Each structure stands twice: as C-alpha cells, then as structure tokens.
Here is the input.
Amino acid sequence: MESKQEELKKRLNWLLILRLFIFVFIFISTPFILRSSEKFLYEFLLLYGITTLGFFLALSLWRFTHKKVSLKFLCTIHSVVEILTELAIIHYSGGINSPFVILLFFTIISTSFFLEMGGTLLVTTFASASLVALVFLEAKGVLTFESGFLPASHYSQPEYLFYLTYIYVCFFYIVALLAGYISNKLRARINELELLYYQLMQMRMDTDEILEYMRNGLVTVDTTGKIQYFNEAASKILGLDKSELRDRDFREVFPDRLRTFREMLERSLSGSMNENSRGEIIITSDEGKEIPLLLVTSTLKVAGIVRGVITVFEDITQEKLVDEYLKNVDKMALIGEMSAGLAHEIRNPLASIRGSVELLNRELSPPESENRELFELIVKETDRLKGILDEFLNFARIEDVPLFQLPFVKTDLSKLFRETLELLKRNSCWDDRITVVNEFEGKEFNVYGREDHLKQLFLNLLINAVEAVKNEKDPEIQISLNGQRQGLLDRNIILAGISIKDNGVGISEKNLLKIFQPFFSTKPKGTGLGLSIAQRIATQHKGLIEVHSKAGSGSEFVVFLPIKGVSGGIK
Here is the structure.
C-alpha cells in the first residue's frame, strides 16, 4: 500500500497542474475584465504564477532529494503564501469588490485535498481573518487602491462592507465544511479501494511466488495455444527462457526435442484427452539427454466454457534411478544366492577331478606321452573354472546390509588408489605404455566404506579400462573427483563422484544397457562378473555407478560413494 506521503504527492501533482491552468486562464482574461489597473494586476498575477511554479519546483526538489520534510507542513505554508498573494491581487483589482475573491475559495477547496477537516478550517480562518484585515485597512485608508467594479464610495458605507465581508466569510466556512466533508469521504473511499487493491495484489504476489518457486513445472495455455504462464521450474526442466514465451504460441516456440510435450498439449486443447489426464513422456535436453516427465493435464473451464489447459509436470529421472536401483539390488541379491549355492556344489567335485587327473598323469603317462598334454589341459581348464567359481563366491559374499551395520571407516582415496595401482601393474593385463593420471595422488580425500571392498571395486574398473585402451596409440587413464549428489534412497547421505576415464574403444549404445548384468562380457576370456561385482559393492555402500560412453570415444565410469562433512573439493 502507498504511504500517506506518496498519496499526498500524487494529489499535489494534480493540484499544481490544475492551479497552473487557472493562473493562465486568469492571466489571459484579466485585460478584458479590468482595464484601469493592468500594471499592478499583471505584476501580482505574475507573482502568483511564480509562487505556484516555485512551489512545484520545491516539491520536485523534495521528491528527488528525499529530504525528511513533512508534505502537510509544506502545503500549509504554500496555502498561507497563496492566500497572501491572492489578497494582494484582490486589493489591486478592486478590494472587496474584486472578482478575484473567488481565488480564496479555490485555495480553501484545494486545502481540503491534503489536510484533514481541522487543518482546512484553520486555513479558512486565516483566509477569513486576512480578508477582514484587508477590508478594514482599505476602509481606514491605510491601503489605497483604484476602484474596480463598484465605486470607491461604497467603502464609506460600513454596513455594506460588514455584510459583504460577513457573507464572504460565511461562504468560506460553508465551502470549507462541504469540501472537507466530501474530501474526507473520498479519502476514506480511496483508502478502502487502495486497501482492497493492496490485498488483491498481495494475494496475486503470494500466488505467483508459490507457483514460481514450486518444484514442479507449470505451463498454462489458452484456447488459441498462447502461453499464459510458465514458471521457473518449467524453464529449468524444459530448457527454455520463460521471458521469451509469454503470449507466444507453444507450437511455434517449443523445439523438436519437446515434440512429445507439444503433442500432449495439442491433444489436450483438441479435446482428444480426458479433462484430467496423467501420464509419462520422454523429452530431450539441449545436451541430447533423455528426461522422463510425469505430467498431469487439466482443462480449465469457466462457466462450462473451455478457457485453456493447465499442465503440471516434474522430472522423474531421480525416481527412475531409484526404481532401477532397487530392481538391481533385488536382482543382484538373488543372483548372489544362486551363485553361492552353485559355486559350492561345483567346487568340491572340481577339486576331486583335478586331484584325480594329476594322480593319473603321474602314474600312467610316460613323459613323452600325448596323454600328458591332455591331462595338463584338463588341469589348466579346471584351474580356470576354479577362478570363475572364486569370482562367483566373491560376488555372493558381498552382502546387502544396512550402511550403519557394516564396519565402514574413513578411507583415504590417495592411499587406496596408490595400493590399487600397484596391484593393477602386477596384473597380467597391464601394459607399460599406459599413462595413468591420478589426481588423488598426494591429496587426502576421505570416503566412508570398507577398504577391501572399495579396492576390489576400483581394481575391477581399472582392469576394465586397461583392457579398453591397450590397443590405442597413446593409452591413458584418468582418475579424478567428479561432483557430488544426494543418496538415492537416503537424501541425508552425500555421495562424492570418483571418475575413472579412458580413451579406449568405448561402449556401444546396445551394450551400455547390459554391462552390469552378471555374466555379460564382450571379451573372449571374460567372465562378465567384474563390473557386476563393482556395481554391487557400490550398491552395498548406498552409492551407484554411472557410465558415460560412446563407441570409439572412450568411457567414463563415475563411482558415487558416501562422504561425511565434505561440501566439495579435495581436503
């Protein structure tokens, strides 16, 4: 709501503009009304105009400098100066007989615009007393003047002067009371309207703020397809600048990557969908990433007439990740149980077979016998099968238990990667041509987890990276920190991203969806359990692994693991 000072300023602006027009009118009409005292009259009319303009300048100066000056006091002073100026004009244009006595009425009326009833009556009293004093001084000859409409002999008739002055004073107070009453009523009515306007604007602002800062996107379109509302969340989710969309046809401003969203709005407007519909669509971001949206569309009707469509939607990427995460946890737990049982059932007979073959090899086969090569092949393959079974058991031993029940401790990634890289370089897959850039070297950064499991996780990923780059001309693997995020199931858990990036052959889009499935492998001698074990360890830590890869463009595995008390960066 506007302050009283602002309200007074608005009134005075109009008042001063009106006063200026009155002055110009009187200034032009004076030569045709009075001819005998033009010199004096013009001088004081000029003074009156200068006073008005000077006050207007003072008011403007006060506004621009924001000085702590009371507008009511300033206006009261102006009224006093104005009355004195008007009395001078009255005196030099015929005294009590001057037609310009009406100027005093204008001043009294205008005073009621910015003063209360008491202030208006006070100014009226000053005007009345000043007029009486003027007439008295003129009658006594203290002030001389040239006669106006009536002859000067009238000043020798006290009764005439008394009654005429009395009538003017009475009318002054009548006008003051009427103007004050009307002004008070208007002021009260204006205040009520301003209060109502303020309340409506406040409600609108509150509603706009709620809609603007809600997490869900909100888009409304009218029956012609023009966008009427587009909140900040909608701008972020859809990747559009809302300042350029108001009153634009959504069919023209929504790009092809939002084709599904555009088609949904078109169906809603055409009436081919229910008045209240709910569904899921997939849009594409500016970066080409698919974003699943959950939408609710409602037809806006007023008095049974369709006025437009309201669409509320949200990005459910996080929810999809949680669903996939939970499905993966259940699937891994089931496979783990099966793997443990199967491995134990095969392992014991396999050991017996290997032992028997070795015994037969020693007792029955001469050194140069072909049977010896056959026996050695059997032993070699049983060893390979035993290695697969060991991976089964390793996979099965990773239990999915609550985070707080595991013996998790602070694990320094600098130390962990140093030891893991030593193990990697002793692995048969290692190639000395490979350059490893480890950004954690010499920089302490702690995550919470089981050190032995985390070492297994990163070793599996690094072995995978080595096998991806070993045929490249300049093979390189980068280990670095890559952002933070909240936990999928527990938002109080903060996860740090650890990136393992290579410049190898990359992964095709078809295989990208399968790489974490147990027993899936594109390598001739792979078991398909390395990445499955890594994913299950990350899941056990309430984290996850994200993969970014394209065939021929290298791969990046980002492992998100829990941290505590770290807001970002290496510490």
In short: DSSP finds 15 helices and twelve strands in the chain. Confidence is low (pLDDT under 50) at residues 400-404, 565-571. The longest strand covers residues 290-302.
